[in-house]
User: Fold this.
Amino acid sequence: MYIRNATVTAAIGLHARPAAVFVRAVTRTGLPVTLAKPGQPAVDATSLLQVMTADFGCGCEVVLSVPDIGHDDLAVRTALDALADLLSTDLVHGPD
Assistant:
């Protein structure tokens, strides 16, 4: 399992537009990404409803992960690093 820590920096956290931008980015990876607060159960990062209801507020430390299920390790690391970088933005416009 590849795990990547990140911090949510969008002013309103992962709610409304920022959550939608993040979920679209996760969905584009094609990977089974989960998102969790440390010590809390993970949610499906491709589910807008789960992400929005998990209350990932501004400044919240999160853990992104993908289970070991035969994916290319470099591709997984690259995808999660990009998602972590995205979480460190305002998430208003999303990745290009």
About this structure: DSSP finds three helices and four strands in the chain. The longest helix spans residues 73-87.
